[in-house]
User: Fold this.
Amino acid sequence: MARKYFGTDGIRGKIGQYPMTPDFVLKLGWAAGKVLASSGNSLVLIGKDTRISGYMLESALQAGLVAAGVDIRLLGPMPTPAVAYLTRAFRASAGIVISASHNPYDDNGLKFFSGDGTKLPDAVEEEIERWLDMEFKTVSSDELGKVVRAKDAAGRYIEFCKRALPNRVSLKGVRIVVDCANGATYHVAPEVFSELGAEVIAIGNHPDGININEACGATHVDGLCEAVLRYRADVGIALDGDGDRLIMVDEHGQTVDGDEILAIIAHHSHGEGKLQGGVVGTLMSNLGLEKSIQRLGVPFYRANVGDRYVIEQMNQHDCNLGGESSGHIIVSNFITTGDGIVAALQVLRAMRLTNKPLHELKKVMTKYPQTLINVRIREKINLDESVAIQDAVRQVEEQLGNRGRVLLRASGTEPLIRVMVEGEDAHETAALAEQIASAVRAAA
Assistant:
């Protein structure tokens, strides 16, 4: 069944434009409540990031859930992974996050977690959409849900994160700059690292409702790079608006992306005998990551882009580590979803136990030059059936041999064909990518 509203990461859109309107979210809360309450557990947790629209959507969502007879615990501003963890801790039937992750403040969305802290199964999302087409009916007054603000939700999540670092490992003497993206981690991330002994300099920790992700956080690391050099820090940690992405900065002010973070964690975990089943990346993961993992003698799997698909592959191959170049890192020993703070602690663990700086640790992977060209198209192209495009791809692949790779895929949200070529030489890679892009333009 094709879903009308749910995408790969919940429901998202521009505030004030359907479906990100109070009336739709009210009906969505009611529909979700009807489905979730049928399991016999009528408790749902609601968390949100720091967008100004979060208050409006939270009110509409809880009204719909209450009208369906569902009890609610309000968590307030809370990172997405915190909601996943607390949903399990509270034994709730579901957790809902009001967030648009790394998007600008005027976007927002809703992400759903099951009682296990994982994304809702497709069948449950489809059932919620079925209820959205039904008439809204409020339960009788004696069956209405109750709303309570959860006590010390932030403190519980802070303690959970701290358990991701062994007691024998202290961060005392480590100077860290933490960029909270003016988002949901502003009040928890600095505390986690500080309580573990680090000297913490927090930036991007003064949200005003509209500055979330604005020139800060995991998608804009220039400010963090400068801050690391200015404060002579050992490491910089950049989180995104809802705290599920991580990009780091080494002591030289150089960016360490999701692929490099994944390689560092994988190598250290393998050395400790704790890497299970291999590592999962995505179609966009750098070839250098794949070769780095293969040197360990363990498999490297590629999933479709999106943390949902990474987790599916992790489950399929019984892996406990996976992630994306963008910084979604899933360490399933600790958490069921991407968690920027938990992932950062794994890198800090490696730094402390090996007594190596981050710049040295990231040398376990050599990044291949990568060229990405977005070709705008007028109408949909069947890439597999275009002889000219396939000929262009085949020629490039023959020239690269085992020195690189080619990826061609259609954007799921825009009229674009994404052409990506990786290779050992940056100039050759750029030229070969343009060669394929020209064939796509001619066929468009």
User: Anything to note?
Assistant: Residues 237 and 248 are 5 Å apart (CA to CA).
